Amino acid sequence: MNIDFENVLPADREHYNTFLQEAVDALHKEGYFVSTSLAPKVRADQKGLLYEAHDYPAHGRIADFVVLMTYEWGYRFGSPQAVSPLNEIRRVLDYAITAIPRNKILMGFQLYARDWIIPHVQGQEAETYSPQEAVSRAIRYGAAIQYDTVAASPYFRYTDEQGREHEVWFEDARSAQAKFDLIKQYNLRGVSYWCLATPSRKTGSCWTITLI
């Protein structure tokens, strides 16, 4: 079972840890393994609602394993950039391995593309779709797919039928291999995909698959 509470108030950090311990104790009696999802922190005292209540050492001690949510740098309401840039993931892992046993760490890997209209307007939402759709659009609009070697992520730009320019960041075999190599380099437990089905605006349906 995965426990994923986000935007927990910093004042509730210890309450969350206590809840987690009680939940794990109860679920272990029923034969369940328990994982938790953690925001991608780069240091223990990182500020922000996403981070402060996520206690890496406590979760690493209590849970059977943890899922690091190493994606969403390219947030759908933010400016265009790689969704899970390898250089940023490294910063998260460098901290995580000091607080959590490596054999308990699953690195998150997103299975979707983000498509922004540019120039980006604050508050404008990027479209989310599958990596396969990203390749299809690149072909349809005759866009050349580029590869950012720092982020280890492919991207391209195209102009739609309304004359609007778009910037798309997604994942392909090269970026996936770079992430798998990183998992081996850090000797982690494995990978956790988010998500098995591309999120739908209508249903919001999404499944997570974890490989351990």
From TrEMBL:
GO biological process: carbohydrate metabolic process
A single MF term (Gene Ontology): hydrolase activity, acting on glycosyl bonds
Source domain of life: Bacteria
Keywords: Glycosidase, Hydrolase
Statement: the UniProt record of this protein carries the keyword GTP-binding: no
One Pfam family linked to the record: Glyco_hydro_18
Keyword Hydrolase: yes
InterPro entries, sorted: CFLE_GH18, Chitinase_II/V-like_cat, Chitinase_insertion_sf, GH, Glyco_hydro18_cat
One GO term describing the cellular component: endomembrane system
Segments forming domain GH18: 1-212
Protein name: Spore cortex-lytic enzyme
Organism in which the protein naturally occurs: Mesobacillus boroniphilus JCM 21738
